[in-house]
Amino acid sequence: MSQREWIEKDFYKDLGVSSSASADEIKKAYRKLARDLHPDANPGDTAAEERFKAVSEANAVLSDPAKRKEYDETRRLFASGGFPGGGSGFQPGSGGFSGGSTFDLGDLFGGGAAGDGGLGDLFGGVFNRGGGAGGAGRSRPRRGADVETETTLDFRDAVLGVTVPLRMTSPAPCTTCHGSGAEPGTSPRVCPRCNGSGIVSRNQGAFGFSEPCDDCRGSGSIIDNPCHDCHGSGVQNRTRTITVRVPAGVKDGSKIRLAGQGEAGLRGAPSGDLFVTVHVRSDKVFGREGDDLTLVLPVSYGELVLGGTVSVPTLEGRVGLKIPPGTADGRVMRVRGRGVAKRGGGSGDLLVTLKVAIPQNLDDKATEALRTYLQAEEAGGFDPREGWAGAR
Fold it and tell me: Which positions fall inside the CR-type domain (predicted)?
């Protein structure tokens, strides 16, 4: 894709958001579209697959503050005619600047040569300080775009760690030419016109311009025998399965970065990265507070009054928990080392909240025994509301 094609794409329209949308709005729009358009949800639907690719490409730019800023600034410059052929701006050689000095558009781009940073990187050396062909040095291959995807884990898998397969459809290195773009057994050659820089310079009046080389289309190399599978791009759309190791203790909303697993770069350029957002399902028994696990344990009134040892579930089996006599309802007891693995080593704790379970149906014998107990309790002088709210 040429720089102009990249800039003329409306990534905001692809995501269905305004150009002033916040980062959260962009993230929410992408997540919804990615779920609706994912190839797994639309098997055989080529239109949905193309939309999924467009949405992923748009998110890769707009979710990155630096890329979004460059994208916005560059589109504004093109819309206002700030580049050759971009509108009604100044014309080379028009003498629009006083003093007759040469005005170098490379100054707009932080020094001009591709790879120097700023907007110059965005164009890969479209504008450069004057000189002969190849004056900017060899251009850098274009790195592949970053890709985002999501996975949902069970609570226990997230706490203990798990390896999950992710099925992805995205541009990947061509398996036939291994990303070179050339037919197996052949190799690309250095472009003789630009000497491998990917850009050529020309002077027009008072201005010096650098522009992509027409012979190699800015790549710096020429492929005489393009690969029959990828037609010289070095990239194919492939559905692949990536194995992701999710570390123990990952939290809901965490992102895992897999370097080099994003979209493939053109003609052997480095691949982008893959960012996996992890969602964690809730559990029926366990909750989480930082590195500690929590649970509510039903107990009987007698177990709190008389004390005893009860069996408590953990993520790795059951353990015994000793309840002291006279323990109050709602007390939180700690089982050390049975929580979430910490990044620096060790584990959090399991926090057990004791909650009295009230029987709903008692037989005659149990009912009579309870009445006898209450009478004995009253005779012993116990009043559960003594001193409460002014009770007498």
Answer: 161-239
